[in-house]
Design goal:
With about 325 residues, this protein is α/β, with parallel strands linked by helices. The protein has 13 helices and 10 strands.
Amino acid sequence: MKIAVYAFDGASMFHLSVPHLVFDEVARSGAAPWQTSFFSEDAGFSEDAGSVTTSEGYTLGGIEGLDRARDADLIVVPSWIKDGVAPSPALAKLLQERHARAVPIVGLCLGANALADAGLLAGRSAVTHWKSTEELARRHPEISVEPSALYLDHGDVMTSAGTASGIDACLHIVRTRLGSAVANRVARHLVVAPHREGGQAQYIERPVPADSSGGAVAAACAFALEHLGEGLSVARLAQAAHLSERSFVRAFRDETGATPAAWVRSRRLDEARTLLETSQLSVDQIAAACGFGSPVTLRQNFAAAFGSTPSSYRRRFGDGATDGV
């Protein structure tokens, strides 16, 4: 798959690097021959067609022209200049033409503004950096702006919230195209941030857990991930962390922003999704393997978190497995 990332003067090195970081790891891992490259305009924001200057003042060379994006299988606008600045006619036309040819267009962080100004988000829900949600809604009343989402994927267009949410969005792309096993491998290599809760859960792809290392809370998390099918009370996790229950709960909340019970439930749901996608285990077996105790409990938690039943989720995302229920 060829992925074209739009680069422009004033873009931060972080925003430009996020798609490369995630998608190049797919290629490095041998999972798929994905190719990621930058493109810009032959004339426009950049004084030199072959380079752009980042917000940090560095010159980034090797930038190709708009033609690079015309044979891409995925186009990413990783950020944007500032609110209220429309994309050039040439860039807007490119995005519209490629979208019309069923090429997915992704706007990370403020990149949602470019997609909105190009007319790709009309009648859709979208998200952007929290500081810009009101401005995006004001400028584009035809868009339903969802400020609480990490990202929203409509298949043909996708937007994400600010900064690090771009990593979550790119991992979602890996997962939907290559499956959870590859997404897990990429996430572990990148050591992604812990699971983050958010609104609009039916559209949000949770990050897969990264390997934990170092610290009492990390030790408890690692223990929990190895024993998801067993009872994981606060007392047992505190013992794994070598802390009193009171100290453990306080330290856990400080590090993860969640209670131990909420964190464990999310990890069990992550594992349930992975098994639904990649295994032929029945829902009853998955419920037992993930520590939910009964399929009824799994279904209730799954529906509350994702707005879907396990069976429906498997039909949509499974690797051809047959639901055993």
